[in-house]
Amino acid sequence: MTSPRFPLPVRFADPTLAGIASALGCFSFWGLFPIYFKLLGHVSALEVLAHRVFWSAVLLLGLIMAQGQWPALRAEFRNRRRLRFYLLTALLISGNWLLYIWAVQQGRILEASLGYYINPLVNVLLGVLFLHERLNPRQWMAVALAAAGVLVLVIGHGVWPWISLTLAFSFGGYGLLRKKAGQAATLGLAVETLLLAPAALLFLIV
Questions:
Q1: CA distance from start to end of the chain
Q2: What is the pLDDT of residues 132-159, one digit of tens each?
Q3: Residues ≥6 apart with Cβ < 8 Å to 149
Q4: Residue 170: exposed, middle, or buried by beta-carbon count in 10 A (0-12, 13-18, 19+)?
Q5: Cα(138)–Cα(5) distance, rounded to whole angstroms?
Q6: pTM confidence score
Q7: Distance from the Cα of residue 43 to its chain's centroid
Q8: What is the per-residue pLDDT across 36-83, written as a single tens digit (0 to 9) for each?
Q9: What are the residues whose beta carbons fall under 8 Å from the beta carbon of 18, sequence distance 6 or more?
């Protein structure tokens, strides 16, 4: 038996374990982003964003084709109503990316990082308000402790954390919209980056 050309994704029987593993993986990668973006401090944030959008589109398009999702991608682009939705989420996530890159390059890494520390709390809030999720008393206690920690950090920093709040709510809102849409993560992000890729490429050429 030949080995598969592309490795199969790791699957967890327990959805909670899958969520924890995914969160740890994402936040580990995000924790390394400031080092990379800081090294690109001589490049404008818009140019970094344009490269991020364009090459993400290229990578995701390759993944879509490798996974045999080309018909699904074409179907998404034929649906004008869904394209309007994807344009909204694309603007939301690209704005989030741009603000984060700019904040790191301006030496405001603490405020940017605090935004992603606040983000899980925003996700909980949005889940309760819009997805009708329910927390048990121990979970509410954990949320309260995390919120208290955020408040201490904000007070200690001594500056209104507009960068942190904008990052947290823009990413949280993006996640909520994508959750409501119910599309696969790779397919949805591919549509979003492909919508933005022409503008990104034009900016890089100019």
A1: 51
A2: 888 888 988 988 998 898 888 888 878 8
A3: none
A4: buried
A5: 44
A6: 0.82
A7: 22
A8: 898 999 999 999 999 999 999 999 999 999 999 999 999 999 998 889
A9: 11, 12
